[in-house]
Amino acid sequence: MTPRPSPTRALLSLRLLAPLAVVAALFGGCATETIRVVVDTDLDAEAGAVVCVEPHAARIGATVLARGGNAVDAAVATAFALAVTWPEAGNLGGGGFLLHRAADGDATFVDYRETAPAAATPDLFLRPDGTVDPIRVRLGYLPVGVPGTVAGLAAAHQRFGSRPWAELVAPARRLAEDGFLVDAPLAESIARAAAELSRCDEASRVFLRPDGTPLGAGDRLVQSDLAATLALVEEEGPRAFYEGEIARRIVDDASSRGGILTRSDLASYRAVLREPLRGEYRGATVIAGPPPTSGGCVLVESLNQLEGFDPAGLGVGSAAELHLLGEVLRRSFLDRARWLGDPEFVSNPLERLLGEAHAASLRAGIDPSRATPSDVLAADLDGTLPPAEGSTTHFSIVDRHGNAVANTYTLEESWGAKIVARGTGIVLNNEMHDFNVQPGRSTRAGRIGTAPNEIAPGKRMLSSMCPTIVERDGRLLLVTGSPGGRSIPSTVLRVVTAVLDHGLSPRDAVESSRVHHGLYPDRLDVEATVPPEVRASLAARGHALRERDRQGDAHTIGVDPATGRLVAAADRRRSGAAARPVDPR
Ligand code: DON
Q1: Which residues are registered as beta bridge partners of 36?
Q2: What residue spans define the domains of the chain?
Q3: Which residues, judged by CB distance below 6 Å to any ligand atom, belong to the binding site of ligand 1?
Q4: pLDDT for position 441
């Protein structure tokens, strides 16, 4: 039986039709304070805005802005809220990257990627015959990396935050405590994962009904254990998570269920502040992440190659342009597989990979009328984990001062390892899956076995996440990023070039059809919106095509070329909401 939508759900669904002023009172204990925020998919962002996958979290972030909080304050509140309202990817039990650009142009990359536990070995997921155990690499405690999210948010807050930490955690805690009504996208997400979630008692208790069926649209999702966990984080800060009661609970549960995670793994976890990676493209500066994500490197290397072509002359979404995107991505992904890994463990040759000489030599091999088979480029690679159908989530924020945050964080697959740590409400990641889990074995199906990303104790697994900020003439131009595993940099490349090559508005850039080429499998993924004649022309150039309903979910803020104003554009491929204060302080 599907419960009838409640009045609140009906109200929220209005966001797709018209801007909606929401009164967010009772915030931070200020029971008498009235804060008004607008929630929609498209909004003026000059006075600050939050754009993410889910409206409650967007509203919570915008409420922080409305109370005078800055972009990082809003990011902390939004990230904690998404752990409650978008549990397939929003998280406390995973990790990610937060890119911050201050209004004065100073940029900082907060790396809160998970690390391998101290007991992890390169062959952790191999069976006696040397093949990867497909279950142990995805489910249960073995693929759980040491979570970085709480440390990362705390590090960003310590450096840039202006509002008290507790005030930023409290709205998520309250939402977990009071519950909220499941909407259609969340119901779909729970339904898709229900069979695997049902194997974990704790996950079943929270996300399934007593009869074992998944919570559906209109049901109330209350997460009492998660609320108690958030209350500890609210009161005690990250220590509660890494050294206190929460750490104890996670490790006790891991030990009783075959995990290798220890108290010392958690206690020694650190978020790292890194210098962002920068690239120049068509007179703009693209700011993105360095390793341990490959996202920024793949993005900038692809842009460097494109700089010698004329995508604008080819037209956005033309077969000739999409072919070029595929070809530059294919080459960047080869360098990713060959070279990139955690910078504390391998030396990433970024200067060479992102230099003009390298771009020129890659460019010289690109035939505008013909796909280069990946085997020709990657003879040494012996043909590169099949892409997991997973989830990650990205949000973009600007505040009224012009500070910006691009944050992408993940549990790796949707719902991570499909386990909730007993007594904590925390969904745990299966990020170990992002290591090259079968050393030496790369395949044409897409498995990568190269050395730089092999498992080692304390090492961060290579990511593809790519939170990105673009500036021109010292002015903020674009804040974006996306989920999508290895297709993430491809999605970001589409959004960035739609703006920089084709002059599209943030909305049109987000709507533009996306393609992805990851070297192996040797095929070009195209969104279903790519027209038949364009596909035929791509096939005629030698591309094997795979149609995907959608690629990524790029919640974006950028300058509208028509007005010169910053606007927020929620990606509507899944759900997506932008929110902004009505009366910013
Ligand atoms: O860090 C990474 O690149 C992956 N763990 C991200 C996984 C992902 O985006 C799955 N997607 N939709």
Answers
A1: 23
A2: 86-272+392-439, 274-389+464-569
A3: 390-392, 410, 412, 431, 434, 463-465, 483-485, 488
A4: 82
| Local structure of 207: helix, strand or coil | helix
Q: Is the peptide bond before 521 cis (omega within 30 degrees of 0)?
A: yes
Nearest CA to ligand 1 atom 8: 485
| Residue pair 4/218 in contact by the 8 Å Cβ criterion | yes
User: Residue 47 C-alpha to ligand 1 middle, in angstroms?
Assistant: 31
Residues 6 or more apart whose Cβ sits within 8 Å of residue 486: 333, 387, 464, 516, 518
CA nearest to 330, candidates 486, 535, 147: 486
pLDDT tens digits for 551-568?
A: 999 999 999 999 999 999
Contact 289, 466 (CB under 8 A): yes
Would you please indicate which residues are annotated as catalytic (active-site) residues?
A: 392
Residue among 420, 577, 387 at smallest CA distance from 486: 387
Atom of ligand 1 nearest to the CA of 431: 5
pLDDT, residue 10, reads: 30
Q: What is the dotted CATH code of the domain comprising 274-389+464-569?
A: 1.10.246.130
Q: Strand order of the sheet with strand 524-527?
A: 515-516, 524-527, 545-548
For 50-66, the pLDDT digits (tens) are 999 999 999 999 999 99
Ligand 1 midpoint to CA 391 (Å): 6
Return the best residue to mutate from 86, 113, 333, 392 for the ligand 1 pocket (most ligand atoms within 8 A of CB). Answer: 392
Q: How would you class 9 by CB atoms within 10 Å of its CB: exposed for 0-12, middle for 13-18, buried for 19 or more?
A: middle
Mean pLDDT of the chain: 92
Q: What are the start-end ranges of the H helices in 473-528?
A: 488-500, 506-511
User: Which of 192, 74, 138 shows the shortest CA–CA distance to 386?
Assistant: 138
Q: What is the whole-number distance in angstroms between the Cα of residue 393 and the centre of ligand 1?
A: 9
Q: Which residue has the tokens 């037209």?
A: 315
Tens-digit pLDDT profile for residues 93-119? 999 999 999 999 999 999 999 999 999
What angle, 0 to 180 degrees and rounded to 10, lies between the N-to-C axes of helices 71-85 and 149-160? 160
Distance CA 470, CA 558 (A): 9
What are the φ and ψ backbone dihedral angles of 287, each rounded to 5 degrees?
-110, 125
